[in-house]
Amino acid sequence: VGAFALLIVRFRPRRAGDHAHAFQLLLNGDSVASPMLQVRGVCAAPRLALPDGGAVFAPPTAVGATSSVVVPVANGSRVPASFRVHVPASAAAAVSVAPSCGVVRGNEIQPVRVTFCPRNQGHAAFRLACDVMGGGALAFAALGSAADRLNGYVPMRSFEARDLMSATSGAAAGAAAAGA
Length: 180
Description:
Blueprint: E1 17-24, E2 36-43, E3 48-49, E4 55-57, E5 61-62, E6 67-75, E7 81-86, E8 95-98, E9 101-104, E10 109-116, E11 122-133, E12 137-147, H1 161-166, H2 170-179
Parallel strand pairs: 4-12, 5-12
Antiparallel strand pairs: 1-2, 3-6, 6-10, 7-9, 7-11, 8-10, 11-12
């Protein structure tokens, strides 16, 4: 009398949504006196989003100088979402991201700073992949222009950021930007 037992149920759904399951708790091997238990759970998938479709435009930057843009990574779901941004080797000398990984709590925004430090004159375009733990992925399109001095800056010709987003590598993305 007065004794109790703690029952732990692990909830690991494979898809988002409402889940319910019933099972019988067998007590002392007697299935007649054993209660039926109802277990319910709700699984929500993280929904991270980037403004402007993920396009990040760095201001005109002199070779050797740096410029930064703060990108708000928004989580539109109720559950926390972990993310990790991957800078390709072809972009590592010119682009950095801080923090490159983190957690965005439900219905909150995490600022991520993308820094552009050009080594050469001309236009630069890079595709930065962002993995979202718990499902999904995002992509940043980092775009910038550099001149040996800012009064010699030549504006980037217009092109759609979606052209860069569909490019599979930094080299292809750079060609997309240069050919626009």
